[in-house]
Amino acid sequence: MSFLHGFKKNLNRAGTTLMQKTGAVDRTEDSEFADEYERFKILEKKCEKLSKNAKAFLDAMRAMTTTQLRIAQTLGLFYDDWVVMSQGGREYVKTIERFNEETKTDLDKAFQTTVLEPLARLCSYFPEINEAVKRRKKKQLDYDAQKSKVRKLIDRPSEDPQKLPMAEQEADLAREMYEGLNTILITDLPKVVDLRVPYLDPSFEALIKTELLFSQKSYEELEALRPQFSQEMEQGQDTRVDDILQQMRSLTITGNF
Predict the structure, then answer these.
(1) Ramachandran bin of 190, using left for φ above 0, alpha for ψ from -120 to 50, beta for the remaining angles
(2) What's the pTM?
(3) Chain Cα centroid distance, residue 197
(4) Is the N or the C terminus of the chain less surrounded, counting Cβ atoms within 10 Å?
(5) Is pLDDT above 70 for 17?
(6) Do the beta carbons of residue 178 and residue 206 sit within 8 Å?
C-alpha cells in the first residue's frame, strides 16, 4: 500500500513538473534559498576537488619515495663480488630504504589522519544536505499542485461545497511542510558554508607542515651523504664520466659512439 501511495505521489509530482514547464501551474520561487543553495554547491564542488587533490599529493609523495627506492635498488644490481659498490653508494641505498619506510609509517599516517580523513568527513555530509534539498523540492511540487487545485476550484466552483475548503486545508498543510523545510535549509546552508574556514584551517596547516617535514627530511637525509662523495664531484669538476666515455669510444665495438 505504501509503495502504491509513494508511486502515485511521484507520478503526480512528475505531472506537476511537466505542467510547470508549460506554464499551466505556477512555480513557487524563493530567491534567498536559490542563492544559499548555489553557494553550497560551489562549496561542495571545491571541497571534493580539494579532497581529490590532497589524495593526489599523498600519492605523489608515496610515488617519489618508492621511485627513489627502486632507483637505489636498481643501482645495486650493477655491482657484484668483483666490482663492489662504493661506501657512498651503499649509504645511499640504506638512506633511501630508511626514508621510504619512515615516510610510510609516519608522514603517510599523519597526513591521512589530519588531512584526508577530515576532508572525507566534510564531504560525507553533502549527500545528506542534497537529500534534504530533494525533499524540499518534492514538498514544493506538492504545494504548487495544491495551490493550482484551489485556484481551479475558485475559478470553476464545484457543485460540492466541501471541495474548496478541503482543497484549501490541504494547500495550507502542504505550504506548512514546504515552508518548514525551506526555512531549515535557508537557516542551515549559510552555516555550513561559513564553517568551511574554521573547519579546513587545521587540515590546511597540517598539509603545509607535512610538506615542510617531507622536504626537510629529504634534504637532511641526502645532505648527510655529502661527505661520501668527492669534492670534485660536488664542485662539478669531476671528469671521470668523460674519461670513461673516451675509453668506450676507443673500443671497436662502439663504432662512432
Answers:
(1) alpha
(2) 0.72
(3) 16
(4) N
(5) no
(6) no
Hey, which bits of the chain come out as E strands?
A: none
Question: Could you tell me how many residues make up the chain?
Answer: 257
Neighbours of 63 (CB within 10 A): 10
Judge contact between 109 and 144, C-beta under 8 A: no
- Mean pLDDT calculated for residue range 191-202: 91
Span 149-185, pLDDT tens digits: 878 888 788 777 788 888 888 888 988 998 999 999 9
Query: Of all helices (H) and strands (E), which one includes residue 8?
Result: helix 2-22
Each residue of 24-47: pLDDT tens digit?
A: 455 667 889 999 999 999 999 999
How far apart (Å, rounded) are the C-alpha atoms in residues 174 and 145? 9
Rg of the chain over all Cα atoms, to the nearest angstrom: 34
Question: Residue 167 in contact with residue 147, Cβ under 8 Å?
Answer: no
Q: Distance of CA 193 to CAs 54, 62, 159, 170, 180, Å?
A: 20, 32, 52, 35, 21
What are 134's three cell numbers? 530533494
Q: Is 236 left (phi over 0), alpha (psi -120 to 50) or beta?
A: left
